[in-house]
Amino acid sequence: MKPVIEHDPWLQxxxxxxxRIALGRAGVSLPTGAAxxxxxxxxxxxxxxxxxxxxxxxAEGLAAAGxxxxxxxxxxxDRSTYLRRPDLGRRLDEASRERLHGLTGTDRPDLVFVVSxxxxxxxxxxxxxxxxxxxxxxxxxxxxxxxxxxxxxxVALGDEVGEILGAGQVVVLxxxxxxxxxxxxxxxxxxxxxxxxxxxxxxxxxxxxRPEGLGCDEAARRLAYLLTMARRLGFSGVNLKDESDRxxxx
Length: 250
Hints:
Elements: H1 32-50, H2 55-64, E1 69-73, H3 79-84, H4 94-101, E2 111-116, H5 121-135, E3 147-151, H6 157-165, E4 169-175, E5 186-192, E6 203-209, H7 216-233
Parallel strand pairs: 1-3, 2-3, 2-4
Antiparallel strand pairs: 4-5, 5-6
């Protein structure tokens, strides 16, 4: 008797990836288990987008790890506005501008980290603090601004944060758009000499930071390389290549 579920010949490859491959067939359809897993993955992706970031818990976690921090909000008042108006997610609201201006002093920081919910708050909640703890040992002697926690923020929000604080570089840790097998992917965006109006071509990106993708230790090593080279060369973006596999600059 022919089996009810026909297994895919690629089944053995599934141990190497969480991608939706080799799901098998039941007649002309997916097996029930694969169909249920798809529904669960879709629900997890929706939750990742709409679940609000617990900023209080994030602030406590950063403080417990030794990071001074401040919370700001973009000009997008709520999640619905954030999703419909990406432009508002790229700028701070007025109260946040005033809060950051109050932090400015005579010593300009070399670097400011911005932790933003983006399109996956669970990615930020799970991976932001471990990534920071992994990268700091690679940056001895760097003057760091307080970590900025940004609600309803897009990548370009970091440009305004960095400009107000007078930072030499800004690194935005942000939740990436969730996929059906990766609802918790963290993205890292580096911009040298941040200011409002910077383009995506002037940034470097490290993506898919999560245990099933690029681990925090490896992401931290790559980020440290890019930060060091950006400061040495005076620019970031498409002209700065990640050659961290070859060497780590002194």
